[in-house]
Amino acid sequence: MQDPVNSLCPSTVSRAEWGARTPAAEPQPLVVSPVPYVVVHHGGTKKYCYDQNTCSAIVRSYQNYHIDTKGWNDIGYSFVIGEDGHVYEGRGWDFVGAHAPGYNTQSIGICVIGDFSDRLPNEEALTALSDLISCGVDIGKIGEGYHVIGHRQTRDTLCPGDTFYKWVKALPQWTDHPVPLTQSQLIRQLDKTFGVAVVAR
């Protein structure tokens, strides 16, 4: 398990530690950094975990589903959190996810393992979520003026579950009117980040 470099950063179970497969293709770097959005998800099935071995097995099942059934290159989330209080590395801070249409290139996607339609994640998971977001801001991966949104705000889905979504909506950083960056804004960010001129076509 990786030790956090910063005191705000929770310990993270690396891809190697949870037994990740090699991605089906090279990951795409995030153009927008720091990102303006954090998208919160739940696993959507009543499979819960309270120890690293069980959580790792569930994270592997997510990756297998995303690669083998969805046809994606890798697990879709940036990070996954278990009710063991651990953060599991998905695509990480620096690569585009596959979790929220319209926001993948400008957000960090965090999934909490389980179905939270009728209850909240436990205190350990919620603390890990809050600490992970604070860590992202502290190390410059999430913008200081970031917004938090639920997955259901980006597409027709019940994710992250009604009870969990009420908790998300109570966060001061939540917005009910998320607006993703436009193509021209993304192009300007690409020029700023990589120092290259891009012509829109």
TrEMBL record:
Residues 22-161 form the N-acetylmuramoyl-L-alanine amidase domain. The keyword Signal applies. One of its GO terms (biological process) is innate immune response. Keywords: Disulfide bond, Immunity, Innate immunity, Signal. Residues 10-155 form the Peptidoglycan recognition protein family domain. Disulfide bonds join 9-135, 49-55. Signal peptide: none annotated. InterPro entries: Amidase/PGRP_sf, Amidase_domain, Peptidoglycan_recognition, PGRP, PGRP_domain_met/bac. It comes from the Eukaryota. One of its GO terms (molecular function) is peptidoglycan binding. Belongs to the N-acetylmuramoyl-L-alanine amidase 2 family. PANTHER family: PEPTIDOGLYCAN RECOGNITION PROTEIN (PTHR11022), PEPTIDOGLYCAN-RECOGNITION PROTEIN LC-RELATED (PTHR11022:SF41). This is Peptidoglycan-recognition protein. The lineage of its organism: Eukaryota, Metazoa, Ecdysozoa, Arthropoda, Hexapoda.
